[in-house]
Amino acid sequence: MFELTKDHEDFRNLVRDFAEGEVAPHVEAWDRDSHFPADLVPKMGELGLFGLNAPEEFGGAGLDEGGFTYLCLAIEELGRVDQSIGITLSAGVGLGINPILTYGNDEQKQTWLPDLIAGRALAGFGLTEPEAGSDAGATRTRATLADGQWTINGAKAFITNSGTDITSVVTVTARTGETADGKAEISAIMVPAGTRGFTVEPAYRKLGWHISDTHGLTFEGCQVPETNLLGQRGEGFKQFLKTLDDGRIAIASLAVGCAQRMLEESTEYAKTRIAFGKPIGVNQGVSFQLADLAVSVEAARLLTYKAAWLKDEQEAGRRGVAEVKHAASIAKLYATEAAVTATRTATQIFGGNGFMEEYPVARFFRDAKILEVGEGTSEVQRMLIGRGLGLPTA
């Protein structure tokens, strides 16, 4: 059975110290100004956070086993201080680095991975479209091949890390033809930043994740070399579904960090906030809410750690893909809904102060909702869990 080792806990403390020292003093201002701190990314790279899953030849940690669990611990600890910084790491590794690391050829890996792993650059993952979210198979972006060039036309929506000053490349899915049975052939193609015909739209005005970089992307006659195909032609959809499986565990880790912070903030507030001459924590109406919150945080953490452990076991050849997919959906569903509930509980305990931006619970309240949407909505997770139980499909 899984358990965290002393090395895991030492690593957690390392990341927590970094988050408290390099992130916490600045997040209120960054959030207020919707500022993406590009200079923080190389510092995260120096700490090794972008290379936990990567081999040493590209600057990674070269861990024989357990790299994914380390990554989830890092995301949790960054997310405990700020959700936007947590998703910057999660997307930077899971959606930026891992597709190249998993499906790229030697030249692609040598070209892109060293800078990405070092934190000198970021990469994006272009799957979602204005009319193709959960139904990713409805992709409308098209890429045609002629004279050794892919010509891409279409649009992507809600793409993280796609428009920063250090974004180097975005991998996008596109229809590249039809299969023998008439279905869309979807491939993955790498588009370097600054390519003619590739436009990064203005940043979204978002409810939360104000520090995270998020843009729509437009492709109009955008041409890249044929060699920018990532993996096999027609395998892009399968590749990105696997990427999403891993990403669900990472988002669960981010949710655990959110819920943990809300438990800490609410417990401390309940000890010090005086009402009717006594701390509000003496009231069962408050203490019972905190007890329930503590239970949900512990359950979310255990489900997430189990899924991360299973992912590492799969990488070592000791577990199957289906088991990991099932555990990932369970962790993602429970942890993200627990996080949203945790922020609502915290805001209620803080009362009027919970509605004020000077208190972190307001920021976490805004940030939490997207956890139930990104990397597959709660409805999609329930559908996948049902399939994992062997229920018949429509």
What report would you give on this structure?
Belongs to the acyl-CoA dehydrogenase family. GO terms for molecular function: acyl-CoA dehydrogenase activity; flavin adenine dinucleotide binding. Keywords: FAD, Flavoprotein, Oxidoreductase. With 394 residues, the protein is an alpha+beta fold. It folds into 3 domains: 116 residues, Butyryl-Coa Dehydrogenase, subunit A, domain 1 (Orthogonal Bundle); 109 residues, Beta Barrel (Butyryl-CoA Dehydrogenase, subunit A, domain 2); 152 residues, Up-down Bundle (Butyryl-CoA Dehydrogenase, subunit A, domain 3). It contains 11 helices and 10 strands. The chain has a 4-stranded mixed sheet, covered by helices on one side. Strands 2-3-7-6 form a 4-stranded antiparallel sheet, with helices on one face. α4 crosses α7, α7 runs antiparallel to α10 and α8 packs antiparallel against α9. The longest helix has 37 residues. The two termini are 36 Å apart. The mean pLDDT is 96.
Structural class: alpha+beta
What is the helix/strand order?
A: HHHHHHEEEEEEEEHEEHHHH
Indicate how many domains the architecture comprises: 3
N/C terminus separation:
36 Å
Identify the CATH class of the largest domain.
Mainly Alpha
Total beta-strand segments: 10
The residue-averaged pLDDT reads 96
Q: Give the strand order of the largest sheet, numbering strands 1, 2, ... along the chain.
A: 1-4-5-8
Low-confidence stretches: none
Q: CATH topology of the largest domain, what is it called?
A: Butyryl-CoA Dehydrogenase, subunit A, domain 3
Q: Approximately how much helix is present in the residues?
A: 40-55%
Net shape: globular
Q: How much of the residues is beta strand, in percent?
A: 15-25%
